[in-house]
Write a structure and sequence with these properties.
Number of strands: 12
Distance between the termini: 53 Å
Shape: globular
Strand order of the largest sheet: 3-2-1-4-5-6
Number of helices: 14
CATH class of the largest domain: Alpha Beta
Order of helices and strands: HEHEHEHHEHEEHHEHEHEHEHEEHH
Structural class: alpha/beta
Largest sheet: 6 strands, parallel
Length: about 375
């Protein structure tokens, strides 16, 4: 199919399936490309097929018509969920296949990282009878994809950012957006709830604050808690000189990180009484002057919401730095970079442990000056 024919075929699509089957941050980084589909096909109905974690974004992406959750067994999160449940995956796969068949989609776009194969998702779309299917692929796919973009990315510092990678994918079939920022809509109810929670935690109404989030899903991407606490203590000391308050939060199951943080500080930060919901977290980040976080979902939320961010960015994968937002990306170059591992295989985590707390504080102070009203 020629480029002109492909563009015409996609322009006529009216029921489009978007697939991003890994984590919340990955879905957020795909939202500019998804928005390009929305803007280029204003009459189309858009359905997102994603992981349960990614499906939590549904209320905050109102330009999508439907969001379906699926633990795909060829994605790490899906395989882990299957192992934890001990259930027969075939039943879930067949159920999802039947859902997709009933929807009678005209087209599907598979968003994947360069370290993933899009072919299992492409086969699912083929079995569901979807005639147009677009994805990056290293392999020869023959008739499995109607529109195959050769996989050109190789893991390393020079590779495309994940956001640009997905924008290039949809642009290849004529779908574009003028706004390449990440998307996330803060709901009014979440903003009201978070304001109440901050007040209950002792933060005066209207008081500017720096937000700390020491968590991350992978241990290899967490800045050492003692170093995080040392940086937090210095930022807390700035309050006496008129600096913003220091608020800290973490995700479900990460309460221990907050306990370590508070215990290692002379004066603990403002702490919420439990982890925020996703919507509340968005409101909390939107209200912060600066976020200090690891490479994690909150970092991507900051990029979507325009909140300046200091990120302690482990060199496990170079594709996911914050984009379209004021940021300081802190790490140390190491020969074992780009390992893609959830736990440091060398055991030293030098790409993060080598960053001094003073550097974190200086980066936060610089962003506070840049963002000053």
């Amino acid at each position: 199919m020629s480029a002109a024919d492909a563009h015409l075929a996609w322009a006529q699509a009216r029921r489009v399936l978007l697939l991003r089957l890994d984590g919340l941050g990955d879905v957020l980084m795909s939202t500019p490309a998804m928005a390009a589909v929305r803007e280029s096909l204003p009459l189309a109905s858009l359905t997102l097929l994603t992981s349960p974690a990614g499906a939590a974004l549904a209320p905050h992406l109102p330009w999508l018509d439907r969001v379906l959750a699926y633990d795909a067994p060829w994605v790490k999160s899906g395989a882990d969920a299957q192992a934890a449940r001990g259930t027969v995956q075939d039943e879930a796969d067949q159920a999802m296949l039947q859902v997709l068949r009933r929807e009678r989609f005209d087209a599907a776009i598979i968003f994947s990282a360069c370290t993933q194969s899009a072919l299992p998702a492409a086969l699912l779309c083929r079995l569901a009878g979807i005639p147009l299917c677009l994805a990056h692929a290293r392999e020869q796919v023959y008739g499995l994809l109607s529109d195959r973009r050769p996989e050109s990315d190789v893991l390393g510092p020079a590779m495309r950012h994940e956001v640009q990678r997905q924008l290039d994918l949809v642009a290849s079939v004529g779908l574009h957006t003028s706004q390449v920022r990440l998307r996330f809509e803060v709901l009014a109810a979440d903003a009201v709830r978070m304001a109440g929670r901050l007040a209950d935690a002792g933060l005066p109404t209207g008081r500017p604050y720096v937000l700390l989030h020491p968590g991350a899903s992978a241990p290899s991407r967490r800045y050492p808690p003692r170093a995080f606490a040392a940086a937090a203590a210095r930022l807390r000391a700035d309050e006496a000189g008129g600096g913003p308050a220091v608020v800290a939060c973490a995700g479900p199951g990460e309460g221990g990180l907050l306990q370590q943080l508070g215990a290692a500080m002379p004066r603990p930060p403002v702490l919420l009484d439990g982890p925020p919901s996703l919507g509340e977290l968005g409101a909390l980040i939107a209200g912060a002057r600066v976020l200090v976080a690891n490479n994690s979902g909150p970092m991507h939320l900051a990029a979507a919401l325009g909140t300046p961010v200091v990120t302690l960015y482990a060199l496990t994968n170079p594709q996911h730095t914050p984009g379209q937002v004021s940021a300081r990306v802190l790490n140390r170059e190491v020969p074992c970079r780009d390992c893609l591992q959830s736990t440091c295989p060398e055991g030293h985590q030098r790409c993060l442990a080598g960053v001094l707390p003073e550097e974190v504080v200086q980066a936060a102070r610089e962003l506070l000056v840049e963002a000053a009203p």
